[in-house]
Amino acid sequence: METVTGVIVLNPPESKRLIAKAVVQLPHVKKAFAEGWLIIANGTTTAYIAEELLGKPVDKFTYAAGYIGHGKLSATPPEIRQAPFIFHKGELVNVEAKVAIRSFGADDVFIKGANAVDPQGHVGILMSNELGGTIGMALGTIMARGAHLIVPVGLEKLVPSVPEAVRKCGIYRLKYATGDKVGIMAVHGAEVVTEIEALKILADVEATMIAAGGLGESQGAVVLLVEGPEEKVRKAFEIVEGIKGEPPIVPSVPG
């Protein structure tokens, strides 16, 4: 079967939507949603995943925790921040994540976005909380019990080396900061879903990042070359056309 190629451009909100659509199609996510525990940690990319599962809009900014906005490292004010969505056997439950995770088994799923991904597939999560925040609370239990940790992250967050960033960073190591001081946690053993994995999941095509950047609403865009049989490449383009025009996420508090 002849292989054809094409080039796709995705701005950050479009990438988040594409990744979200792929994550909810993963068999272990479907199983955890229907039969077990599924925790969607706070974040902008994870807000899109919540939308895909709920079938209704989620305010992306108030679902965030830490974020980069107004030219600095910051955090959504606690008084407006939404609690994470936690599902048990397909139903939303009103419990804290630190309580729900105590019931986790091997088939349960924790979804947490990241702030960095490197070419080797390492992912890093910024922490402005001195005790490690959400990932600090959850990671030990997830790894000890063999539960699924899924990290959706757009390639706009590509960095040269997550391990190097971890070695150099830390709240108490930093003398100056544009906004909040942060540390970084490297997360190993997670299932990382970027635009590349998302296109494989949704259209069964191979994707290669070939460029990044842009102007206006395309700032932070990624350019992906996709290849595969023509019907699959065409499907990839149809999926992308269906998410074009995803609106940007704008902080609703002043800088």
Q: Report on the biggest sheet.
A: 6 strands, mixed
Shape: globular
Estimated share of beta-strand residues: 25-35%
Q: What is the helix tally?
A: 9
User: Topology as H/E string?
Assistant: EHHEHHEEEEHEEEHEHEEHEEH
Straight-line distance between termini: 54 Å
Number of distinct beta strands: 14
Which structural category do the helix and sheet elements fall into? Answer: alpha+beta
Which regions are unreliable across 5 or more consecutive residues at pLDDT < 50? none
Radius of gyration, Cα only, in angstroms?
18 Å
The portion of residues assigned to helices is 25-40%
The largest sheet has its strands arranged as 6-5-2-7-10-12
Supply the key terms.
3-stranded antiparallel beta sheet, 255 residues, globular, alpha+beta, 6-stranded mixed beta sheet, 25% strand
In short:
The protein has helices at residues 12-23, 27-35, 44-54, 60-63, 97-100, 133-145, 162-168, 195-203, 230-243, and strands spanning 3-10, 37-40, 66-69, 72-75, 85-88, 91-92, 109-111, 116-117, 123-127, 148-152, 183-187, 191-193, 206-212, 222-229. The relative contact order is 0.22.
